[in-house]
């Protein structure tokens, strides 16, 4: 316990906002391997399974041949030079109570601030758990594209409940982002007589 706490405090002081305590940022990946950026495929929205996977592989092979293999070689990472941290490592007293100001009564919440789910197509494995969860809870805000089978969240119907986020088996595949338009709740059929 003490070692984990020390490691968490050290990473909080060294790595900053990119880490979630002891969890590093997750790069885009598919089947545990990094997703290669192929310019020709960036706007085609091809899934990573079935015949589209073969199309992706052929396009990647073509890019490698045209660039004489340069695109297949990742740029070598320079050794990380660790200068002294700009600030001291936080103490336990700095961490205790850090989230207290985030608790409070419901009426302190701003009803104008809402989030919606955003699915990363490069990381999606098309398992359908987000779709099933959203449909089972009654929101039905997620559709699947008939050709690519990628889930698409309809912003007008998404309530920001984050159920899809919680059932997704791939970390950081679904992110909750700020809603661009104001949220208008759907209360069902409006009454026929308005006083």
From TrEMBL:
Keyword Ligase belongs to the record: no
Keyword Repressor assigned: no
Ranges for domain 4Fe-4S ferredoxin-type:
115-147, 149-179
Q: Which Pfam families does the UniProt record give? A: Fer4_21
Per the record, the domain of life is Eukaryota
Q: What keywords are annotated for this sequence in UniProt?
A: Oxidoreductase
Choose one Gene Ontology CC annotation of this protein and give it.
cytosol
Q: What is this protein called?
A: Dihydropyrimidine dehydrogenase
Query: Lineage in the entry?
Result: Eukaryota, Metazoa, Spiralia, Lophotrochozoa, Platyhelminthes
